[in-house]
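PT: before anyone asks, these are the final sequences, not the draft ones from last week. 595 residues across everything. Please model them as a single complex and drop the result in this thread when it's through.
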Amino acid sequence: MKDKRITRYILAFIILIVAVVLLFALNIAIGSVRIPLKDVISIAVGRGLNETYSRIVMDIRLPRTIAVFVLGGALALAGYLLQTFFHNPIAGPFVLGISSGAKMTVAIVMVILVGHSIKITSGGLIIAAFVGAFASMGFVLLMTRKIQTMSMLVVCGVMIGYICSAITELIITFADDADIVNLHNWSRGSFSGMTWENVYVMSVVVFITSVIVFLMAKPLSAYGMGESYATGLGVNVKMLRVMLVVLSSFLSACIVAFAGPVSFVGIATPHLVKWLFKTNKPIVMIPACFLGGSVFCLFCDMLARTLLAPTEISISTVTAIFGAPVVILVLINARKERG
Amino acid sequence: MSLALYTKNLAVGYAGKPVLEDVNISLNKGEIMALIGPNGAGKSTLLRTLARQLNILNGNIYLDDKDINEYKRDDLARKVAVVFTDRVKGELMTCKDVVESGRYPYTGFMGKLSDKDKQIVARVMEDVRILDIGDKDYNAISDGQRQRVMLARALCQEPEIIILDEPTSYLDVKYKLEFLMILEEMKKKSDLTVIMSVHELDLARRFADKVVCIKDGKVDREGSSSEVIEEDYINELFGISSELTDYARDKQISVL
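LR: through. Structure below.
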């Protein structure tokens, strides 16, 4: 039994890693200009002969693909943390309004800074998004004092999301400026226009956050069984809850700062990964969710770029098509289990 | 004999509002204490406070003559284990996974089980007679089996004191007897001290060394089971009116 399980974990990890590598390569090769895989490889090892190809890969596709990999992973991890925190299978940064809160503060900060002709840095974006994410999370936590059922909590989160989105739209409408076009694209969710500076900052931030999350695997496994049992096993539950709130808000903020709100990845990926691995052990789930989120986003972004090329579809449109059915399935199963 | 646990003017409750006050109880090592009393009297609140899951409102709890608040979390988890009424929220967990989680206070930073941990898990599962369901999904077993898995999980913490909240309430008579038999075996085998709340007075009388009765925000009576559990007093404790006593006598229902 034990060996069987470990074999399954190893197999599942291999599947995920192969999928990441494959989709990564495809994302770089496919686009308005098709670049043969052998050229992709030669550019990757620094011996690209075709100047145009090198430019496209190094300036546009590679930073974007890395960003999708990093942010997709972060998004799934944020979803997993929120689902663990609330003991709620349909929690996620988007449905709880955390993404929208972050979006609102980023929009406010951007409009103010654009008005004063100041360019915002990646770090500044993250901080702005974190403030919004944290505020929304605080609001949701206040709600949990009044509301116990998981569906009502999600409904409240969606409402918070609508309020924040409405305010964001208002801000964007009033601030008519050339840069607002970008802002508009971003506010619908998009991985386009990633710079190397963006990629560098997000990679460092997400990497550090993910490592911290992984180091919390043991207390998280106890917390997942319920708070009273975790306390009984010697877990500092209060401290753990604070950490969970901060880390999940931080991860959500990172994504919004660079790609805007991306729906359904955070909520659906943990379930897909759970089905693939047949476990909910944090020590397996944390790295697996990260990879799973990357695969999900790499796949969806590839479709977003290519389906109606040269027009790009917003990423959330694609993630919703694949993510929403998963959520529906989860809800049906949850109903069945309760009888 | 030495005291495993005693309280001094303990007040327990939620959000600063006391449910029970002036609780002074004590229990020797290796003894079984049963808490009885009407629904909502505060038995669970007291048990949760004794396990340091709720803040003490007033007074002190001493384990081995040391104030409970002076214990580190890990040390307390190696000393006191709980089986409460809340269900474990395990998803995709086998019974063995649940039992293994009891080794938490002993495992290292990443929670990997050592050979010794695995031996203890295997031994406890044998003691509690759940070796055969180890690989079954925790959510797919019967209530009686689940309760034994919960007991095994708690015993894996190798506690000196085990605190159980109505462990037998939802079990049928066979599982009830089985559960109590295992608990008593464990008590004899490892000098375990047991504190539990029960609704079945008959079980409390035959099973517990000491009975604590809770009513109207205080400990109403404390003593050996034969001293405490007698009909008149029980009628008073649970507020059974003379009309009800007559009815019970008429139908030959024994309240004990």
